[in-house]
Amino acid sequence: MSRRRSREEYERTLAFRFFRWLSGSKDPYLGRVEMKPQEEWREEESVQLDHLHDHQMLRDRIYDTEHNRKIIFFYKLYKLSAVVFCIGLASLLLYTVSYLPKTGAANRPANNEVPARYIEKGLQETGAVNIVTGMILDYRAFDTFGESNVLFVATVTVLILLHAKRNSKGEEEQENDRIFEPKNDAILQAGARILVPVIILFGIYIVLNGHLSPGGGFSGGAVIGAGLILYLNAFGFRKTEKLFTEKVYKWVSFSALTTYCLAKSYSFFTGANHLESHIPLGTPGHILSSGLILILNICVGMVVACTMYTFYVMFRKGDF
Amino acid sequence: MDFIQNFPFFSIMLSMFSGTVCSVLPRRAARWVNTLMISLIGVLSFVLLSYLVVRGESYVYMMGHFPAPWGNEIRAGILEAGTALFFCVIMLLSMLGGRKKLQEEVVESKHNMYYILVNLLLSSLLALVYTNDLFTAYVFVEINTIAACGLIMIRQNGRTIEAAVRYMIMSLLGSGLLLLGICMLYDLTGHLLMSNIQAAVQGILEDGTYEVPLLVTITLMSVGLAIKSALFPFHAWLPDAYGYSTVSSAAILSSLVSKGYIFLLIKIIYRVIGYNVFGNSHIIDVLFVFGLMGMIFGSLNAIQENDIRRMIAFSSVAQIGYIYMGIGMGTGVGMTASVFHILSHAATKSLLFIAAIGLTDVSGGSRHFIDLTGAAYRNKWAGVAFTVGSLSMVGVPMFSGFISKLLFAQAAVQNHVKMLPALIVLAISTILNAIYFMKTVIRIYTPEEGSEYESVTFKNMKTYAVTLVCFILLNVLLGVSSQPIVDLIEQGLSMFA
Q: Is A142 helix (H, G, I), strand (E, B) or coil?
């Protein structure tokens, strides 16, 4: 049971006074202690100037990194420890390498059943004459899909960092480095006119024959990309803009990756569920053979060429 | 084979495919694809998890027509499916909670790229979780690294670009060390498939050959992954990366990206090197010591911060330290505690980041404590959520942080050598946690009269408030019904071995 107190009784309690003090409605010192406002302390002007001067000197000394002994010492220590660390790490790794199995020895652990099957049955199982292509695009196609996505995500990241929207108004034309482009370099253009078609054709050849001869999507794509970059350097952005825009990049990489994804998903799904795959392997050695490998090579080649060209234009100008 | 067994493959492929699709869709459609895809993968993972709980054993899934040492392979167990489900939930909530902020902070033409990055990041996390092959793991580590850099710098100001450069350098160093380790391990064992490597490692130990390179390999892989997940001496990239990027990125980076690497490390410990081999090497003690140091120094740095986002970021350093301390304990209980803390920290840290952004928004965008006075009254939902997150981090019962601290303490008692340092540092770190989190909570609940900033109500931030409520519920769920989750983790870890 709580007891109801009268108002007066309550006002005499400690709690009431405490809460009143807490809420600030009564100051216990008011009227009991003599209180005077403090005089504002003011400096003379010369003193102020002196202070300002001291302050400036201090700032200068703090930010004078060239003569600050501690900072110089720190930088030296930093460099020294970096060198020591690198030498230490390198010698540790070299020391470790001396313990690794000898290169080329027959009893290396890496000479086991895995490469044996790739070499002995690779042609028969994948239909690719080039075993390396058979390995990366059939046995381990999932890794290669991841790898093409690495290129895709790298391009996206570079686009995020460097893609600048084109200025259409004349005022900002100064900042547009298009006007600094080399114009009509006759020797370069004459050379490019001969070389570019050959380079691109050769790149396409490498991509299409990836399953028959050394090469494949990655190397062929790089060659095509190099051809495009040469063309750009010779003829400037005005020409390449007609051919290769952001939209083209988007759709080319989209279609390449989608084709890869869908084609390989079919293969993964049938493989894992032990269903029969309806993709014919063809006769080894023919251009239309080895199942999905040709298509996958083309997809990878497109992604690689787009990535190389996009990197170049982004670092050069920030726009397609 | 049951159809459900295809789900890990579906999840990885769907998220990669949706990343590709987002590049050509209009902005709004890309957002929908992103949200739907994350939810769908979450549902798939949930179904898979319940299937695996009933089935009681893990299985391997052939990626293609060729069996494992020749072709690729993924593997699903309870722990994998559970982690995938959890990652999806956190990612979905982080995206929802940061959606409005994303629109303000990122140029509109780059939103599509953000969704591409998030989808590919999810796919790489899923692949890291499910992979049974070290090289596949490395490929997806690359995707993860590049996508994380993109997530940091998509909000373009000087600090995020600097942070992204730092992150890239440190993270690539980590990737490089990991790659060196994988190469050496391949040279020693001749395999990339996890189970085959483990068999070969046992053989190496029995023969007594190649012991030096094996030790160096273990070191390189542990240090590489420790750098990538910001263990204490390698955390210099972390505060800027988490502190200045847009809020969804900060939440995803802190609660998922670093956790993916830790999960990979746990997988390597159990399935590649073998738990006993790892436990007998002294690397485990090094991880333990660095974990302890991280717990102290991360908290000390957080106390000194005057910026709420950077304070939360430094708190991550301390929490990563807890996880490595559990791994370094060298007992199964310690590992369980670590895995539980991965979940608990992921749920709490993303909540804190998203709540903090609500508080700074009603304080004129300032992140300094002096402006945050009374912010919890201006945005009540964010205030409550931040308080819940803080209490959980400090380790108050009913919330997830308490359970993980309890598990860590229990694990410490079982290891006689490491018990004393672990318990002492756990206590000190808890007090330090309380200092900086309670300081902030008191600050945001200190009433400020005549505030110049406007308050927001539920009507202006429906998605945001619902997200916060979901986060709080998740936290309480982890804290209240922890026993079934701990049992699942233990089952999952036993499936690993």
A: helix
Residue A171 has pLDDT above 50, yes or no: no
Which tokens belong to B168? 């890239």
Chain B residues 59-78 with CB within 8 Å of chain A: 61-66, 69-72
CB pair distance less than 8 Å for A156 and B117 = yes
For the cut 60, the answer to whether the pLDDT of residue A1 exceeds it is no
In terms of phi and psi (left: phi > 0; alpha: psi -120 to 50; beta: otherwise), the region of A276 is beta
Report the distance separating Cα B96 and Cα B294, nearest Å.
Answer: 31
End-to-end alpha-carbon separation of chain A, Å? 83
Instruction: Give the pLDDT of residue A208.
Output: 92
Nearest to B139 among A138, A150, A156 (CB): A150
Any A CB within 8 A of B58 CB: no
pTM of the model: 0.89
Give the residue from chain B lying closest to A165, CA to CA.
Answer: B109
B147 and A157 in contact by Cβ < 8 A? Answer: yes
- Whether B188 has its CB under 8 Å from any CB of chain A: the answer is yes
Residues 6+ apart with CB under 8 A from B173: B224, B227
Which residues from chain B sit within 8 angstroms of residue A163, using beta carbons? 110
Residue with tokens 């990239």: B237
Out of A101, A160, A274, the one facing B153 most closely (by C-beta) is A160
- Please list every residue in chain B whose beta carbon sits closer than 8 Å to the beta carbon of residue A161: 153, 161
Q: Using the beta-carbon criterion (under 8 Å), do B153 and A96 form an inter-chain contact?
A: no
Instruction: Tell me the CA distances in angstroms from B272 to B276, B339, B450, one per residue in order.
Output: 11, 18, 62
More confident position, A242 or B295:
B295
Nearest CA in chain B to A269: B64
Buried/exposed B89-117: b ≥16 CB within 10 Å, e otherwise: bbbbbbbbbbbbbbeebbeeebbbbbbbb
Question: Is the per-residue pLDDT at B295 higher than 90?
Answer: yes
CB B17 within 8 A of CB A261: yes
Which residues, other chains included, contact B335 with Cβ-Cβ below 8 Å and sequence gap of 6+?
B266, B326, B327, B329, B493
Q: Give how far B292 is from chain A: nearest CA, Å.
A: 24
DSSP string computed for B38-104:
HHHHHHHHHHHHHHHHHH-S-EEEEESSS-TTTSEEEEE-HHHHHHHHHHHHHHHHHHHHTHHHHHH
Interface mutation vs chain A, best among B9, B21, B37, B70, most A CBs within 10 Å: B70
% of chain B residues with pLDDT over 70: 100
What pairs with residue B61 in β-bridges? B74
Whether chain A has a CB inside 8 Å of the CB on B169: the answer is no
DSSP summary character for residue B107: -
Judging contacts by C-beta atoms under 8 Å, the chain B residues touching residue A273 are 1, 6
Asked if B390 and B441 count as a contact pair (C-beta separation under 8 A), the reply is yes
ipTM: 0.92
- The secondary structure of A173-240, three-state, reads HHHCHHHHCCCCCHHHHHHHHHHHHHHHHHHHHHHHCCCCCCCCHHHHHHHHHHHHHHHHHHHHHHHH
> Which among A89, A315, A221, A301 has a CA at the least distance from the CA of B173?
A89
Q: Which chain A residue shows the shortest CA-CA distance from B196?
A: A114
Lowest mean pLDDT among A175-189, B137-151, B456-470: A175-189
A106-122: average pLDDT = 85
Q: Are A254 and B24 within 8 A, CB to CB?
A: yes
Question: How many other CB atoms are there within 10 angstroms of residue B355's CB atom?
Answer: 32
Residues of B in contact with A145 (CB under 8 A): 16
B71 to A173, A272, B118, B181, B270: CA distances (angstroms): 55, 11, 28, 22, 22
Stated as kind and residue range, the H or E segment containing B308 is helix B308-328
B143/A96 Cβ within 8 A: no
Q: How far is CA B324 from CA B318, B401, B416, B436, in A?
A: 10, 16, 18, 22
